[in-house]
Amino acid sequence: MLTLVEILFIVAAYLIGSISTAIVVCKLMGLPDPRSEGSGNPGATNVLRVGGKKAAAITLFGDTLKGFIPVFIASFFELSSIGFALVGLAAFIGHLYPVFFGFKGGKGVATMLGVLFGIHWMVGLTTALTWLIMAKGFKISSLSALVATLLAPLYIFLIMALYLKINMDHVLPLIISTGVMTAILFWRHRSNIQNLISGKEGKIGKSS
After folding, report:
1. Separation of alpha carbons 201 and 203, rounded Å
2. CA distance readout (Å), 97 to 89, 110, 123
């Protein structure tokens, strides 16, 4: 049973996740609404298409931060393992289905990365490095994200359970919640996966 404090953290995390950085950044910078341009996805990759590198970098940072902040703050409180894991999941869900923007959000890669950094910096860094290595080699953002997030639950187990020797009672809910995020992220990328299979997926820095 979740405590009142845990429920409040989960709700707050969802609300923070619901702040669409892409839409806010594009509006403040006088750029087209990312929901009506490019791929129509309010995320950093599409902002790169419609607004350039500066807008995309700000969006990427903001989306990562809104996943990181709730989890990082929650780590200082005596939450249960399940409650703590749900805080990160709530921030991720908020980005995908934002209450402030008609429940139509981004695909969740940057926000999930922020959650992973909030769980432990080593987990976030390892996942980010996986993305960078894949992006350097294949220059396909979606493929890099899919591989990196697919490996994230394994990284949590290897780093937190085996290397840091944290009790599995605490680690297992994090592995499960991260696995759920990965599964949802794959679902959100189903069109990208189809394009990858058919060889039609666009490369980083090129319009698709």
Report:
1. 7
2. 12, 15, 25
* Segments of 4-104 assigned E as strands: none
pLDDT of residue 72: 98
What is the spatial distance between Cα 179 and Cα 174, in angstroms, rounded to a whole number?
Answer: 8
Spatial contact of 81 and 128, defined as CB atoms under 8 Å apart: no
For the stretch 141-157, pLDDT in tens is 899 999 999 999 999 99
Neighbours of 161 (CB within 10 A): 17
Q: How wide is the angle at C-alpha 22 spanned by C-alphas 19 and 27, nearest 5°?
A: 100
Beta-carbon contacts of residue 80 (< 8 Å; ≥ 6 apart)? 2, 3, 6
Two structure tokens written together for 87 = 């805080």
d(CA 161, CA 163): 6
* Predicted structure pTM score: 0.94
The sign one gets for the Cα dihedral 159, 13, 2, 112 is negative
Task: Please report which confidence band the pLDDT of residue 189 belongs to, taking 50, 70 and 90 as the band edges.
Answer: very high
In one-letter notation, the amino acid at residue 47 is: V
Domain boundaries, the chain: 4-198
